[in-house]
User: Fold these one by one.
Assistant:
Number 1:
Amino acid sequence: MSKPFSEFAQELPEKDEHKKSREYKKLSPKLQDAVDAIFKEMESKPSDFLNTFDKTINNVSKKFKVPPKKLMDYFEAEVLSI
């Protein structure tokens, strides 16, 4: 059974909603800045984001000098906690 759009829309995260999660709060300030940059990129190009996710992770990891694995681990933990 499919949900009406109004119910689905309520489940979408608000802007900066990711900052309230337990996994986000565990991150170092540097990793939090990197995750914020990824979400900002996702908001600016939502239709193209999934196609360029790995590239975005690599670019942000270089910019913020954090390991790409740490960023991937964060996103995996977020997905598993939902």
Number 2:
Amino acid sequence: MTSLTVDGVTVAFGELQALTDVSFTLSEGTVTGLIGPNGAGKTTLLDVVSGYVRAKAGKVRIGDVPVDDLPPHRRAALGVGRTFQSMELFDDLSVAENLLVAAESSGTGSSGAQSAAAAVGLPADDQRPAAALSHGERKRLAIARAMAARPRVLLLDEPAAGLDAGERRELAALMAQVAAAGTSVLLVDHDLGLVLDICDRVVVLDFGRVIADGTPDEIREDPAVTAAYVGVTQRTHPAARPTASSATPALAVTGLAAGYGGAPVVTDVDLFVGAGEIVALLGPNGAGKTTTLLAVSGAVPRVCGDIRVLGRAPHGGAFRQARRGVAHVLQDQRVFAGLTAQENLRLATREQAALEKVLELFPALQPVLRRPAALLSGGEQQMLALARAIVGRPRLLVIDELSLGLSPAVVSELLPTLSRLASEGAAILLAEQHADLALRIADRAYVIVAGRIVMTDTAATLAADPARLASAYLGGDQRL
């Protein structure tokens, strides 16, 4: 029996087409994965199903009931349960109170709260405030709240994020248990190994369109899925720069474990970047790339391991590192919104020659120099952040998701700029979800999945064997 039907759903935010003609169904008692690269439209689709975003076109049905005109609470009453990436708990309420709020509002009462608590392994009478729970316990509480209403369809948005291996196994067992009881589960998660291991079926989105729909084995072998995550690579320069064995160390990371609230997100990470090298850190979204980069810059505390940045431990915060020649481009741009683009650049240099040189590299910024950074497009802000990092002539440049917010054409124009910086002696660590882009200019690459380095090789070798790279992204072979 079909519990959810999504038929031709299209969503646009202004000129941005977030979803286009998306269609699939969920069968009762099954676990279906919804995956795709960052920005593919996964959370937007969950928002459409749960009623937080209205579709421009298309239909959604719970069972045989059309719900397109119903608000979220009416859809919840029809059997739609939902978790969120941010969990959305009542932190000042106890575990028991969080569960009772969900159960009472849905009409299942104390029995609903008790059964949901038992399913996730939490005491139904737990009086600890939600704010006092560990990350894993908060994840379980979020799922229990959604289950307290005994939903017909359970939408899970990144439930495995930040969980350790044991907690992931518990989550997998829980989803199997929920499905066995007759609930349909739609799982969005960047842990592709988990998704492909536990799901009965997987739907893949890319740029808001369904590019594949099939069994996990079919998805692993689908060329369109491989292309979406890995791409077909053509290198834009010969590998003529120093190799890792001969280059002067700019960054050396050994045995790194780092995370948030004392819970490691990445474990046993080793990587090396030599002067004049471009090294790519690849992996699906949520794999631990950003956490690794933040640990390198000192913004995320180490649990254990050793980091040497330009020969020293990263003490003194980002300001001191910047004074020593380290520049970090964050994936959320972090420009000074109240300053103009030119003023943002002036913060990094007062040398007119340096400013003119960087504008030659980023000609698209020239017409918007006097515009407040807050009024720039996302792509322009990304270029401004990169230009501000480069204008200071860094010895080590760390970039998190170069392609975020930029068109493929603009990214292609930026790649030679990074190659030029490396040829002048700068060391570059480039974290990028889209392997195709990074491997065009990288000398070497590391692949990180679920917080661990699972593969390392020259960029040329990885580019020549996209199937091997895809196997790591999609939870298959993880040979070093």
Number 3:
Amino acid sequence: MIFKDLKKRVTLEATIQQTKLFEILQNKPFWIWNIEEHKQEDIKTNGDCCFNHIIGLPTKEGVEKPLFDYEQIIFDTLVTQSGNNLLSNKKHL
């Protein structure tokens, strides 16, 4: 096997992994802000309840942290209820 063949194989494997991850993330919310609803969805989906739990929660000093209230304010400011990106409307934060 030459380097060119190895590069093609690695690229193909990475593409397959990206496709699988995209399929898992498709139609998942970024975060479920209601705590009870989040717990129920976590149990129902075996931990694949939202984007952040699938890719991994943010960590601080090795400890996973949930999203905080101020992050919800930022998220809500960036994305409207209909899912439209407010930045495309040239709004400033």
Number 4:
Amino acid sequence: MADLIRIKTALVSVYDKTGIEPVIRALDKLSVRLISTGGTKNYISSLNIPVTSVEEITSYPSILGGRVKTLHPKIFGGILFRRENNEDLKETVNYEIPGIDLVIVDLYPFESTVKSGAGVEEIIEKIDIGGISLIRAAAKNYTDVLIISAKDQYTDLLKLLEEKNGETSLEDRKNAAAFAFGLTSHYDTAIYNYFSGSNPKSFKQSILKGQELRYGENPHQQGFFYGMFDEMFEKISGREISYNNLLDIDSAVNLIRDFNDTSFGILKHNNACGFATRDLLFDAWTDALAGDPVSAFGGILISNREIDKKCADEINKIFFEVIIAPSYKEEALEILMQKKNRIILRIKDFKVIGNHFRTVLNGVLVQQRDSKTENESDLKTMTLKEPTASEKRDMLFANKIVKHSKSNAIVLARNQQLIGSGVGQTSRVDALKQAIDKARNFSFDLKGAVMASDAFFPFNDCVEIAHNAGISAVIQPGGSIRDKDSVDYCNSNNMAMVFTGTRHFKH
């Protein structure tokens, strides 16, 4: 098995011609024979560079509307024959099969065609058959052939051609083969998920881009992130984003997406510890921080409005890990960037995938995302007392936050401000007591506040505790066989209660 192999013949078949010209010119400079198909062949000819058409080698034209061009023994034989196998060598001579040392392919854009909303016929025609087969063949025979399967590899290929004068090492070819098989697997996964729809018979997901993180949740754990972070955020400044940062950023984004009015949130360990909606962003920030200024230390900040200088001046006074906003005034950035480790992100408009995945028991749980957000029409008053307009507004506000809080969860709110929460508790009573204690610790008066629960009350103990604390209205999904106990207690104590009919567990 030869380590170094000189590239003498290259097959080039690319859908997107972007970036290919320097590669073609570099190959021509090295006197590499070029074989190509259809549009790629015409493009190479337009550069006044000699090129042999696939049809000249196979003696077959492109047929079936271009569906069959390269699928021929002379092409695949030229890629797959083993250079040190005497029988293979004899057959290449007998059947006049040219050796191909380099294959460059850019596949039909199946995923982007699906995302564009194209019709079925157009999508099906973007399922690459010849290209994917060329990639697999060249990758399989990596001992003799170099496969370039994506435009992202052109820069490395050019460097290799220039530095090694057209020779490739076994390590070069094996690394390229590994990349190629990753790409073909990803491509097939996208096609499978398109055909299987919302009820796949097996779990298949693929993300091409990945990066190693400093560590996982703790320094002794290795961590990786697979995703297209740059498509969702512009990182303006700050240190490397960590595993825990990514978890909190995800929680923050999911929460803020449920709010259309001017809002500011502070999150810690995936839960909101401060949140407020106001006419002015500065007021939203001030009241979000007031909700729990202790937990805000080292937290994640998120706004759905542009950060201005006035806000930045106040935000700059506390220690935080990450700030996220759709935009920043220039003078605000100058302030926030004073501390170099702060991660400053500009959030872009991106679509959230519809499914949520979690590993469990050496397998994977898959569910639809909880995309339900209640509005006033979803509220069913169960008590004699009808909640006031301001109570309904606060109920909906609190219900959005409790939806994004770890179960068992209780959220207390007043005037569209988070004033206390209990999250991740083993009983709803403990969650409520924690929320009340938090509110009182920061001197909030609970009289007239509302309570939101992520799930129903099996007994009336929570509404009794809430009433004794001064809470006047409750929003919950309902559904307990003892719902009547809680409703009766509210009726006896002049409290309002509404049911939404939707539980928002978050385990």
